[in-house]
Each structure stands twice: as C-alpha cells, then as structure tokens.
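User: I'm writing a tutorial on reading structure tokens. Could you give me a worked example: one chain, its sequence, then its tokens, then a sentence or two explaining what the tokens reveal?
Assistant: Sure. Here is the example chain.
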Amino acid sequence: MPGLPVESLSAWFQCMNGCSKRWPLTEVIYNCTECGGLLMVQHDMEALRKLSGEQWRRVFDERTHSTEWPFGSGVWGKRELVCPVVADDNVVSMYEGNTNLFWAKRYGDQLGLERLWLKLCGNTHTGSFKDLGMTVLVSVVQQMRAEGKTVPAVACASTGDTSAALAAYAAYAEIPAIVLLPKAKISTAQLIQPISNGAITISLETDFDGCMEIVQRISSDEGIYLANSMNSLRIEGQKTVGMEILQQLDWEIPDWIIIPGGNLGNVSALGKGLLELLELGVIDKLPRLVCAQAEHANPFFTAYRSKFEKFEPIEARPTLASAIQIGNPVSYQRAASVIDRFDGIVEQASEQELVDAVVEADSTGLFNCPHTGVALAVLKKLVAGGQIAAGDLVVVVSTAHGLKFTDFKVRYHERNLPGVGTEMANEEIVLPPRFDAVRDAIYREIERRFPDS
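And here are its predicted structure tokens:
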C-alpha cells in the first residue's frame, strides 16, 4: 500500500515554548529568534490523518526491508512522518535502522522477567543509534546544497558515536565534516571512526560540555552547520526507534521502554515519535518510559527527584559509560516534558552496577556497551523494587555495539579496571600444548561453571 505523496505534506521548525513563528527545515536555525527556546519539527498532522492508523501500520510494514529507494531504510520508510521536504535524489542513507529486537530470554529468566527484549540499535552502519538522526540531518543539508544554499561544512561535539555517524554520512555525501572530541575520554574504536572517514578530527583538552560550547560558537560565528541533537532534525530520525519497536512487537505496546540518557536527545526523540503515532491513531496507548543515567553524570536524575522544579548543570565525573558523561544536557527541557507525559521514571546506576549488568548480560549471549549496562542496571533496580512486574513487556534500548568498547571489556576480564570489582571476570587460560593439560582444564572448567549440567 502506498503512503501519501510527500509533495502534499509539510513540516517546519517551531519553538517548543509555544511561539507561533515558523521556519523552513532548510533554514539554518537552532533556537527561536524571539525567546531563544529550542526548536522542534512540527508536521502537518491534519494532512497525515488522511490515512487511518491501520493504513499507516500497513504502509510501514510493507516498506520494511524494501529494495525501493529509499524505503528500505528504517527511517525513510517512514518519511512522511520524518522529513517530507527532501527529494529522493538528496536522501543520504545507508539503509540504517530495522535493527534486531533481541529476545533476551535467558537474561530475563535470571531477572524473573518473562518478556524482556533488547532493541539492538548498535547493529547499524556506524554501530550506534546516532545513524538514525544523522541520515535526516545530512539529507537536509544535501537538499539545501542542491537548492543553492551555502553550507561549507557540518560539525559536532561528541563523546564518540555522534562523530562516527556524522563523519560517515558526510563522507558518503561529499560534505566536509568537523568533529570536536574530549581528549582521552572516548574509546579507541570510536576515535578511529571519524579519522577513517576523513573528518577534520580535533581533540580538545576538556570534557563534552567544553566541546559543545566551542562547536556552538563555530556554528554561530562561522556559518558551519551544527549537527548535535539541539538541531531537532536529529530527533526526527531517532524517533523511529520507538516506531520500529512497536512494529517488531506486531504493534503491541510495551509496558516499559528503558533508554540510557546523557544529552537526552534520545529520550526526547522516543517520546515525540510515540506521541505522534498516538495522535494519528496508529497506537491507542503509551508505554511508560525510563531514562537511565550514570551516577557520575546524573543532572537529569537529580532534577527528576525535585519533580523537575529545579535543574542545575553539573561537572560530570569520569564514567565507564563515556558517551553519556554529560553534565549540561542540551535536550533537558524536551526530555523533562516527555518523562512527565509518559508517567516516566529517571533512575541512576553506579559504576559497579553498570559493570555487573554488562557482564551478567554478556554471559547470556549479549555483547553490551557500558551505556546499555546503565539501562540494564536500572532495569534490575526497578524489578527488585517492584515497579516492573514479572509479566510486564519490557524493552531496553541498547544504544551502541559492544565492539566499540572492547578496551573496557578487556580490562574487566583481565581484572584491570580500577575502582570496580571484577569477581565475574572470565580470564584467559594459558596452557602448554599438551593434550592432557587441555583435557583436564576443559573438564575442570565445565564442572566449575556448569555444576548442574
């Protein structure tokens, strides 16, 4: 079933604070010119309601994994609800999205959960959910350039994953990319991604918030296009995570969706997408959302405890969940409104809790990044506290692939992770090349690890 012709649809930037002024999606603007508030992409919902909720479900389902350009992308398969202003020829896509929804049966059994799923967003081109937002942003830049607008380069501050996505998509579109990274605060795997894709890669002796301050000035003063999540085009792509989860559950609504939070663009995006589906009649109720923060970078958790009456940026302390080591999240306002609307919860996890959750889940066949470990640790807390019941349908959003963080995993299993207990380490067994030594070691380990088998 075809969707709606995109030329009949419209979308625009509009201030979150209720200002009436609008701007085209192809205009270089990030904040309201009247009040300074963040912008959001607003769609013509009346035009979108020309199809019923059931018809939209059929459109999305029929496009999934299609070879028809660009609908095979998990993002562009929903283009009417994402970004109708980009022509087919200007879409910059690597068929991102449509990532595995993993039934974590064994891990769920350990936690006492009957229906636990992990949305493996890291199973995409650059290894994180950031691809979903970057395909939209870079496609709009491509559309702007095709219309004759001057966009000399795209730039971002990053804790690793955003820089990888921007560098790859910009390289694919032949657009210069600039990434600002906090020196020695991201993994080697994350650092080499933008370098390999030819981005101008600058390491600054500061944290993410310091990088963000500079990249905002570069964008403001030099006319270079900002690619961080305060640019709400990113939100439009990232919101398809929730849409995909529902599709993969045959449109059953989870009781809970748990997602890690740093700069909070992901929480904002997830909420926005689900609310739009509700308005269009695609779904008839909402899940509860949980934002999981690292204890060392927890300004959103602290604000939640005051019922969002007070927000104070902090200087985030070093955390193994380096991609969410952010003390002044740009999307705080958006995320707070989402948590309120979804009867949500914000919880935190210590370094030991996140590490333990990663190791426990990995031992059941997963291969998690430390940020997913934060979400899993929070899941354990909510199960133990009785908020999440055994029969609840729970989806944890895994934001990046564990292969980006092998240094963290190696140090754990070598018992070389300072400040964190490594009782579950699976150490390498080094033996002489003798049959009897290998045989004895095998049976000894089987007996130790699987005493009931």
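What the tokens reveal: Residues 101-127+235-413 form a domain with the Rossmann fold fold (CATH 3.40.50.1100). The mean pLDDT is 95.
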